């Protein structure tokens, strides 16, 4: 390397071994992430970004460094931690590997300063590129899950909160929103943490109602904001681009604004009057029809929806619904969830053959994707 410095005979082999081991570690970690981007997400852009990073790194992995390898004499190959032997989910595999890549890049940067300042500078840039890749990947995963979700449960305070949510998750629920206007912040924080973990275990999205601080504190997937809550622009600044922001809308002009402001999804309703939002005027199925014709991103019909009227909401054009009481107060939340999902899936299957709207325009959400 160009600007190598004089080193003691003792230090040089160790330095080369550290660099060799961490170049390997980084490339292996990137490969793990790359395989998911390629085979799991089928995403050419993310796959290319991983491949580019691996190739950039390979340029620094010179024969000189490889020659220093001494695997039989490396104590580290024997050391494993029980936590390394199991992973709960793909998300965890990705998280662990991003950590590994970022750590190894930091080691390369620090020891690289002794070996080659160009190398240290290059791996520093790569570390920032990996942070960006991690954010993009997380954002992509969240948007994919959102697009695939058709049933969204908004919680209400309940003695059996966790059992009810877990039962609904077992029924196939894909999004949970923690909504609690009654308790203190300590309880909210503790509930939100438990729900976040539960959702992660089941691969579901976890959203916090109203509170950006709480969403950030528990590493939620996003936040849901009403018309009286934080403006979207400020929320985006606080949450960053990788988390989801949902907005409530009750009429076409609120919907148009939410689209312009870049909400990731919207609530459409209340479709019917509901005791869950006492005194709120119903927007009616006409507004559901309007959303079906005009909303380019995922939207959830909400408000007073239950097993008796869900068909009417679907007939008005909804492909996704959100409920509180119909699951929170169900005797069997798993069955209630499965019932709604079956109705929604049946609708999706029927819709498969109809690629244009009644006005002749293509289905808007397909244009969005
Ligand atoms: C999915 C979804 N849609 C609408 C709402 C209502 O939000 P908001 O208008 O802020 O009212 P509160 O829920 O805060 O009382 C929602 N929470 N979720
Ligand atoms: C939070 C919210 N926003 C619009 S309607 C509603 C409550 C829906 O509750 P339910 O499903 O019990 O009618
Ligand atoms: Mg609100």
UniProtKB/TrEMBL annotation:
Residues 1-129 are annotated as: Unknown. CDD domains: TMP_TenI (cd00564). Pfam families: ThiD2, TMP-TENI. Residues 17-135 form the ThiD2 domain. GO terms for molecular function: magnesium ion binding; thiamine-phosphate diphosphorylase activity. Belongs to the thiamine-phosphate synthase family. 4-amino-2-methyl-5-(diphosphooxymethyl)pyrimidine binds at residues 177-181, 209, 248, 277. Transmembrane segments: none annotated. Residues 151-327 form the Thiamine phosphate synthase/TenI domain. This is Thiamine-phosphate synthase. Pathway: Cofactor biosynthesis; thiamine diphosphate biosynthesis; thiamine phosphate from 4-amino-2-methyl-5-diphosphomethylpyrimidine and 4-methyl-5-(2-phosphoethyl)-thiazole: step 1/1. 2-[(2R,5Z)-2-carboxy-4-methylthiazol-5(2H)-ylidene]ethyl phosphate binds at residues 274-276, 304. Gene3D superfamilies: Aldolase class I. Mg(2+) binds at residues 210, 229.
